[in-house]
Amino acid sequence: MARIIFFIFAVMCCITTGSKASQSLPEEKSTLTGAYLYEVPGSSQMKDMQKVLPSEIEFRKDTEGLLTVTKLTSPDEIRTAVDAFLQIRIGDRTDIFVTDQYDVISFFFPDNTTVSFQLNGRSLEWRNQGKTELYDLENAELFWEEVSIR
What we know:
This protein has helices spanning 44-47, 75-85, 140-146, and strands at residues 3-8, 12-17, 56-63, 66-72, 89-94, 101-108, 114-120, 123-128, 131-138. By secondary structure, it is mostly beta strands. Strands 1, 2, 3, 4, 5, 6, 7, 8 and 9 form a 9-stranded mixed beta sheet that branches.
């Protein structure tokens, strides 16, 4: 089975392993503002996440070189985190770039698909036509509180 890995990692790009082609947002969409964060990768697993929960959620928090990894594996913890994650919207573009705080949120699904989101501080990093764009995230604080990461 092909394993699709979506990274928003200093750039938003979709990377695949196996035989599936790369996916990205439609070219005509020049801004992400107003979209829900889970919609960004165009992943069917993310869209159906309330029906088919990830088997694990992992948070990699790198602050000033100190890496902290937190994993959620309990169905109750995952359900709580998913419910909060589904409320996160992409806000306005921002110019605030943090050089010492990079966070990754990864969702591991039962079909071996992994979807990851790269954050710069608390902003989404998105690669658009060769340029990195940063977007504020709205309603994200509830998610961070629910998963006890601040």
